[in-house]
Amino acid sequence: ATKAHIKLNTKKLYQADGYAVKELLKVTSVLYGAMNTKGVERADVSEEDSSKFKFDLGSKITDLKAARQLASEITSKGASLYDLLGKEVELREARTESIARPLEINEAEKVMKIAIDCVLEQVQKTKDMLNNVALDEANLEAKIEKRKLELERSQKRLQTLQSVRPAFMDEYEKIEEQLQKQYSSYLEKFRNLTYMEQLLDDHRRTEQEMFE
C-alpha cells in the first residue's frame, strides 16, 4: 500500500468487519482501474498510430517485473493481514479484558517494593564480598611482608655466622693436622708390616720345602 501510494486505515483493518472490507477495496480499485486504463489506451490507438509507435522492449520488461513484484508483495501482505485479522477476535477480547481490569496500585507498589528490596540485597551482598576480598588481600600482603622480614633476618644471621671464626677453630685445625700426620704414619707402618709378614711366610714355606 505504501509503494502504490494508497492510504489505508489500519484501525479499520484490524476490526475485521465491513469497514475492513472497505479499506481493502481501495487496493482492488486501484488495480482494477489500472487494468481498465490499459484496455482503454489499447482501444484508442488507431492502426495508423500503431505503425508509428516504437515499442520500448526494455521499458516494458522493467514495468512487467515491477508489476510482478508488486503483485507478489500484495499477495504476501494480504496473507499476513488475513492471519492477523483471524487472530483479532481473540486479541480484542484479551485487550478489552485488560483495559477493563482495575489497576491495583497497592499490589503493584508491593511487587515493585519486593523487587527493589531483592536488588538492594544483592547489591549489599556484592559489597560485602568486595569488602571481604579487600580484607583478605590486606591480610595476605601483611603475611607476605612478615615473611620477607623473617627471611632478611635469617639471611643476615647466616652471613654473620659465616663471617665469624669460632674461638676453638685454631685448636681444631692444629689437632686435625696432627691426626693427618698420625694417619699417614700408621699407613706407612701398616704397609711395612704387611710386607714383612709376606716375606716371613715365603721364607717359612721355602724352609719347609727344603726339609721335605
TrEMBL record:
Presence of keyword Amino-acid biosynthesis: no
GO biological process: cilium assembly
Domain of life, source organism: Eukaryota
Location within or outside the cell: Cell projection, Cilium
Residue ranges the record marks as coiled coil: 132-189
One CC-aspect GO term: intraciliary transport particle B
Keywords associated with the record: Cell projection, Cilium, Cilium biogenesis/degradation, Coiled coil
Primary subcellular site in the record, as a coarse category: other
Statement: the UniProt record of this protein carries the keyword Amino-acid biosynthesis: no
Protein name: Clusterin-associated protein 1
Organism name: Phaethon lepturus (White-tailed tropicbird)
Source organism phylogeny: Eukaryota, Metazoa, Chordata, Craniata, Vertebrata
